Bifunctional oligoribonuclease/PAP phosphatase NrnA
Amino acid sequence: MQPTDFIPAPYVQDALRMVEALKGMDRIVVAGHVNPDGDAAGSVAAAGHILRAMGKEFMLYAAPGLPRYLGFFPMPAVVHTSLAHTPFTPQCALLLDCGEPERLGSELAALLPQLDTVNIDHHLGGDGMGSLGNWVVTEAAATAQLMAYVAMAADLPLTGDLGLSVALGLLTDTGGFCHGNTSADVLALASHLVANGCHLHWLREKMDNDWSLGRWRLWGQLMERAVVEHHGQIGFCPVSLKDLGRCQALKEDLEGFVEQLRRLRGVKVAALLREESPRLCKFSLRSYGSIDVRAMAADMGGGGHFNAAGGTLRLPLKKAGEELLRRIALRLDGRAPEIPEAPGTGEERHTPDDETAAGNNDQSQVTTS
Ligand code: 5GP
Ligand code: MN
């Protein structure tokens, strides 16, 4: 049996096309979206393994670095958090799990026009930003799923840390094989990984059962604070910088909390709003089934997937909360967004620096609310 025999038929040609594109590249920066999650990190890791097997010179880049909860993960090379001092002069970039330059981080976004690029992604809303090639499959559950097919097309067995990298992306973006994107193809790939020695349970254990006390306390407080709005249809929770500081928690400690908000009976849209700096807030939306939260996020300059999306509002926390709830309610009631744009959205879209510069893991930023 050939490794390509494991690739679902609709994806074989594109996976082979991506392998050819990678063969034509060298001196490659490999990057996912800013504030990487498990799929961005897993896709970047898988790419590292594939490029190493191809004998390519590459470096891994993530702005502003991997979250601490992924610190255990065996990345195939050092993950650079700056492009100021690179080990070689980059000629190419492999852009993963990211559909727009603004979400790559400001350094890479600025360098992009000088690089030959390949883009592999599963986000809605674009055809890709690769100059050498694009593979954007919005039906794919995770970018790591596509990277698995690229590896198979390159004749690489999905064993060891390469298999684990794919599993990290799959586990993250399917919510542990529970979300609506958990297709038969995803489960077939997961079965293939397990058959090849991947310990999914180990990964799950490392990701789920390693909470800091700060995270625990923060979740406790937020569980108390969360409210339901708009006749019980919106589960909402605002989080200030003070909240994080008080609990000695990091913003990455909020990962997964928005999914908790969706557990409340009757809630159709879960909305988490986090103060990033005194006049800038980041929101995360989650839904179930036929409720399109990407459209809601897009109304406010954001994006993502049908049931999981996010964006930024350039408003103080209280005002941002009001605006967010108003915008969600409009869509839930089946009313089109109004024109002109409300303050804090649209033309005031955030810049790449906003997300990476405003705090992240840096507790020195936790001073105001
Ligand atoms: P999260 O809520 O976990 O931060 O993100 C959920 C989904 O929305 C992810 O696919 C993420 O890439 C996307 N997303 C989050 N924030 C933004 C944003 O500001 N702009 C766009 N285009 N997508 C976003
Ligand atoms: Mn993803």
Remarks:
- The pocket of guanosine-5'-monophosphate (ligand 1) is lined by residues 33, 100, 123, 284, 302-305, 308-312 (CB under 6 Å).
